[in-house]
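Kindly go through the following sequence and its C-alpha cells. Advise at your convenience whether the C-alpha cells fit the sequence:

___
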Amino acid sequence: MTHPSNNDGLYKNLLKQVEAVTKHINEGAFQSRARNKTAANVFIQFLAEEFRLQKIANIKPKHIEAWVQHMLDADKATSTIMSHLSGVRHVLDKTPVYKGPFPENSEILALQHIPPRAYTDVERAWADSEYRQMIHLAIVLDEISVARVMQLAHEIGPRIHEALRIDYADAQRSLRTGELKVKGKGGKIRWISIESKPRVMKMLQEAMKDSKPGRRIFTNGKSVEEMIKHIQYFIRKHRGKFELDSRILQKRDGYYLRQMGKKYGYKPHITYHGLRHSFARRTYLELRKQGESHFQACKRVSQLLGHERETITNIYLGELRGGKQQ
C-alpha cells in the first residue's frame, strides 16, 4: 500500500499522470499489473518528497539512481530493488511523455555497485573495530544520540524505528523493572531484558538526563522519520573511513562477488541494520556456550530480534546458520 507523501499535492499530480497510463495497460497477469503500479506509485512518492518533481516527463537517470540508493539505505534486498525497477520501467515505457530511455538493470547495478543477484554471502555484521571507531567518531562530532542508538542496536538489537520510539517513560520503567518495552512491526510489543546489560542501563540513564518526561529520548526533538534519515546519513557519510575490505564471505557466492568487486568496484557497506546482525551473531554464540542447542539458541535470537520465522533469523546468523560455532 502506498501512503501519501509530505508533498501531497505533488504526489497526487504525479499519481494522476501515472494512473492515466496504467488504466490502459491490459497486458500481463493482473498480479503483475498491480505489482508494477505499486512500484511506480512508490517511485513517484519518492520523487515528490525528495525532488519535488511535477512531471513524469522530467524524470532523469539521476532520479532513478537516487531512488535505488534510497532503497539500499533502507536495506532492501537486491531482488526487491530489481523487481521495483522492472515495474517502474514497464509503466514508464508505456508513458508517451517520458523520453527515457530507462536504464537497463545491468547499468544501474554497475553505477550503484550492486551485485546482480541477492548478496546472501555478504558479511553484514559489523566488525568490533568498525563499531568502536564509528561510536568514537559520533561522540567526537557531538552526535550523542546517534552514538546511543547505534550502541542500543549493538547491545540488544532493536530495529532503528523501534529504538527511536523509546520515550522517557519506557526508559524509566526499564531501569526499574530490568525490561525494556519495544514496539515492533505492526504495533507488536516485546520486552527485552537489560538486567545483565549495565552499559545499556547507564546509557538510558544518561539519555533521560538529556531529555524530558513525555518525550522520545533519542530523537533530539526531530520526528522519528527525520532521525532515521539523519542516522543513516551519518553512517553512510563516515563508514568509508574505517570499513574493512573483507566483508565478502568465502563460501558459495563469495568468488562471484569478489569478481563483481574487481569488475564494478562493488564493496558491501556497513549499515545500521548490520548492527542487528552483529547482535544476533554474538547472542547466538553466547547461548550456545551456555549449553543451548542450535534450535533453542536460534529461537531465542528470533524472539529478541522480533522475528516470527527462523528462516529470517538464519540470514542474520550468516556463517553460523545450521549450527556452526566459531
